[in-house]
Write a structure and sequence with these properties.
- Two copies of one chain form a homodimer.
- Chain A is of the alpha/beta class and 575 residues long.
- Chain A contains 16 helices and 32 strands.
- In chain A, the strands form seven sheets. Chain A has an eight-stranded mixed beta sheet, sandwiched between helices.
- In chain A, α11 packs antiparallel against α12.
- The longest helix of chain A has 18 residues.
- The first copy, chain A, is elongated.
- Chains A and B meet through α1, β5, α5, α6 and α7 of A and α1, β5, α5, α6 and α7 of B.
Chain lengths: 575, 575
């Protein structure tokens, strides 16, 4: 819509395309709620006041908020493709999500990032990308890509790229690591997001002085207050795992609210569908006593401002007509969502746009393994005496692990799983270069009685992770994941109990949210017949290879003692 | 200073260049006052906490604020050159001024704007430029330049240009005038400042919808509240003439403070020297009851944020070490000013930087008049009967005028000034194209007893304005201004009583502030011998040609009936 037409509509010289009437407007600029028609022409708000149109929608006392913005989210964590993710969160009032394609970048590099950018077109949500800063995340595992400053620079010129994603290697930044500094320098004219759990004092100063502008890892009010004081904008996070809202809310005052935003970081499809996204955070913040207008401001305007998205974040003339309409500011039930002047969701359901089908893009299979054989899973041990092995101890809903030492007696020249001691075998198979590199170990905590489970989601390099009680089932599970181009599966006695195909990078489904959710439910239900001790065994499995969070992890290169930051032998005697 | 060094200093691995110790830090991000050493390396703050340096300055309980920012100022109104302006305001704690070179642009066009940009280098203040949007300001006068969208575009790519200056032609924007829209479209990716006194309702929506982002013309709380609500950032103004702070302060709340800034717009050298600039506004705001931290925030951070100046506006690691240090937050007496890590002012006096002399640039004389002759001032009238003439009525400290009708009897074929009725003659001589075009008329209100006064400051086209009681003195005054390359002068019986040379565009002095101030004092003192009714006759004179503010004005093209928006004849009978 041209400027002249917009001005003509605003001045009342020609009718609007659409007028929203009878609602209360949540004004995050003046921090008040007021009446007024919202006149829309093309994709933008022309005026607020008294307006006419051939199309008037009476909102009868509903509240019009600025469309919501998730300031930091990994779409891959939803396991949905970008268009399907957009449909789900749009129905929850989100109009823009700032994403870090960290997972797919670790698998597919810039090809993965560009795929995310391309597949986000014609979605009911603006998907902005921050370029992943830490690929690979660790040098103890073989990732699918290695992005340095030279790879980041060309991506920054894309209109939908806003800057550098969470600089997770905060020790590297604080130490002045040249690779980190080169990435920061390449992004100096853009927004640079941070990620620095627990960083404090002079190290925090060093991190902020490097140009990092935000943090979403605060877990205590004290931590958030210090980071706020030192100049970081604070993204308050409520995801599937991390729940920081309750702890941080007290730090937000009306005067400092402009330095806070809301984000989900990692939230799976089931939680997105049942709870919502930023709408859920506003609801919870208001329930905890936050002024609803401030809560809406944190869920829209402050994120828009932080990222320089001048067209979003407020119900005001000239801004995009991307609006979230709710019943009231306490329940915050999303009734209608407009994006760029079009109704895109109503009462929780997406509204298909004529001619606006999301692009369907193909991406080559990411699961590139050397031919898998059962003997790949054998842990060789000669002699007849028990040997000491390092065992990873997994806990429900934790991404870190404990560690222990167990004595295992070799049998047939190998070490085996032992259900009587809840000892399963664990394998991490490199799946990017088809190198055949495989790390082997033991894990306790699954309560596995037989069979095997496998996943191509294996943070952060997303090699294939397999846990099982015998080599044949482990091999069968791994082979099945190759056949379905990645995903999750459970195998017992050579038979696939259930699977969830995640063919996009081995991380994301191409199914719709309901189908994916049903597949996940079935998988969990059937897996429960062989895994007795964990409710979410695939979540646990996917973090057993995350070698940047302690204490003991397994990558394709072997066991990682995270505290000592080195690879160690599986056998304790030789360590 | 490279990033590595800054991080090393922040982390405490190497000493800072300078540590400010023992002060209280006014933190506009966390909205609190706290202790801490401020460690500076090169031009930036490295860290805040405990730091060491070979150079430690003990500030002994003083308050460190972010360097102050004037969000909108016409340097020309100070009558100082840019470097001299910078010295004055720097001593008052200003580290950045966002300027609109509207006056010199009307005289010298893009050459004038580029002169301002060039002469702002090596100053103790960052001078940012917004490209003047309304040159000429009116079609009833001959300006020195005509800037359209094509002229604006190349300027926008300059690093020190932030966007389009106050779009004063708000009726044009609201009406959808193609010239206005072209300028807005050319600047759409930049900041666009507004200027819309009294605009309200749907017309205000139209103005905001056009992309304008701010307004500095609010005079009532009601007006500011409506503009805030509709999406404009509000610049609260305290200049030499306009005083809006008291009226608007009540609209600012902690929650909305991020939408307000401070500015001076027009402030002359005497007021800048005696009162200050943004420091004066903070002092006054605090005296009126505003939370001092919020007041400092409006004088620094919010302006930095609005203009996207990420390196300014807060005392935080990584930001420029541009700091204003004051005794306390009530008196707000500026004790030390650091800019980019260097001490640039102390106790009201600038500190010369070794090797940092401001550039001295020459600018060709702007006073281009056809040869001036006494008969140029003759108002021809034949016959012996009194004729009715339109008379401009000037008032002290007002930029608008009243109007009246007077009967004057011709003598010697002409109409003359009449001291018994306080009727002076007024002439406006085109001074850009040397066309000889001259507007003639009468003005009442100066209380002039004889002689003439003249000025090359004549808003907005800055033609030469002369008021006098006889043609000979008017001619002598005009000729004197040509000789001194522009400025002010007073003449009596052919003798120059006093003058103030303003050789830079006929608008600005090349003298230092004290000299200019003394020159102005002497001028006013001597002019008082012939001008009895106005304390500031040159201020009044300079606005008699401003043809966009009513009721009756004189330009080089003749009398302008501003309300009817047309040129009219001097003689009432023929109107």
């Amino acid at each position: 819509m041209d400027l002249k037409t917009r001005i003509d509509v605003a001045a009342g010289r020609r009718p609007a395309d659409l007028v929203l009437r009878g609602a209360k407007i949540v004004n995050v600029l003046s921090c008040e709620v007021h009446d007024g028609d919202v006149a829309i022409v093309g994709d933008r708000i022309a005026g607020i006041g008294r307006y006419e149109s051939a199309q008037v929608v009476d909102l009868d006392g509903l509240y019009i908020c600025p469309g919501l913005i998730d300031a930091h989210v990994h779409v891959e964590s939803s396991m949905l493709s970008v268009p399907q993710f957009a449909r789900v969160v749009s129905a929850h009032g989100t109009v823009a999500a700032v994403t870090d394609p960290h997972e797919i970048a670790n698998v597919m590099g810039t090809e993965g990032i560009r795929y995310m950018l391309a597949s986000s077109k014609h979605c009911p949500v603006f998907i902005y990308v921050m370029v992943s800063s830490c690929v690979p995340a660790s040098h103890f595992e073989t990732a699918g890509a290695d992005l340095d400053a030279l790879d980041i620079t060309p991506l920054l010129s894309d209109k939908w790229v806003l800057g550098l994603a969470e600089m997770m290697n905060y020790p590297g930044v604080v130490a002045g690591d040249p690779q980190c500094l080169a990435k920061l320098a390449a992004s100096a004219d853009y927004v640079i997001d941070g990620h620095a759990p627990g960083l404090s004092g002079r190290d925090l100063c060093a991190y902020v002085a490097s140009g990092v502008a935000s943090d979403h890892e605060c877990t205590t009010a004290h931590e958030a207050a210090e980071k706020l004081r030192r100049g970081l904008s604070i993204m308050i996070r409520e995801g599937s795992q991390a729940h920081n809202l309750d702890a941080l809310l007290g730090v937000v005052t009306p005067a400092t609210a402009d330095r806070f935003m809301f984000c989900t970081d990692d939230k799976d499809v089931a939680d997105l569908m049942s709870e919502g996204q930023i709408d859920h955070m506003i609801r919870r913040a208001v329930a905890l006593g936050m002024d609803p207008i401030i809560a809406v401001k944190l869920g829209s305007y402050t994120a828009a401002r932080y990222f320089g998205l001048r067209d979003l974040g407020a119900v005001a003339p000239g801004r995009l007509a991307s609006l979230t309409i709710v019943d009231d500011l306490e329940q915050f039930r999303v009734r209608k969502v407009y994006h760029c002047g079009k109704l895109v969701a109503e009462d929780g359901l997406p509204i298909e746009q004529p001619g606006g089908e999301p692009r369907r893009l193909t991406l080559r299979s990411s699961v590139n393994v050397k031919w898998i054989e059962p003997d790949q899973f054998v842990i060789v041990a000669t002699g007849a005496d028990p040997v000491g092995v390092h065992v990873i101890e997994v806990k429900e809903d934790r991404i870190d692990t404990e560690r222990s030492l167990e004595m295992i007696t070799p049998a047939g020249g190998a070490l085996h799983a032992d259900p009587t001691r809840d000892l399963a075998k664990l394998a991490v198979i490199e799946r990017h270069q088809a190198s055949g590199t495989t790390g082997l170990g033991f894990v306790r905590g699954f309560g596995m009685t037989g069979g095997a489970i496998a996943s191509t989601v294996g943070h952060d390099s997303h090699n294939m992770v397999v846990a099982g009680m015998n080599d044949a089932d482990m091999c069968a599970a791994a082979v099945h994941l190759v056949k379905i181009r990645g995903g999750f599966c459970a195998v017992h006695d050579g038979r696939v109990l259930a699977d969830v195909p995640l063919p996009i990078g081995g991380l994301m489904s191409d199914a719709d949210p309901a189908t994916l959710s049903d597949q996940l439910d079935l998988l969990h239900q059937r897996t429960a017949s062989i895994v007795k001790a964990l409710r979410r065994p695939f979540m646990a499995l996917s973090f057993l290879s995350l070698s940047v969070i302690g204490k003991l992890k397994l990558t394709d290169q072997g066991l990682v003692d995270v505290d000592r930051f080195e690879l160690i032998d599986l056998l304790a005697g030789s360590a």
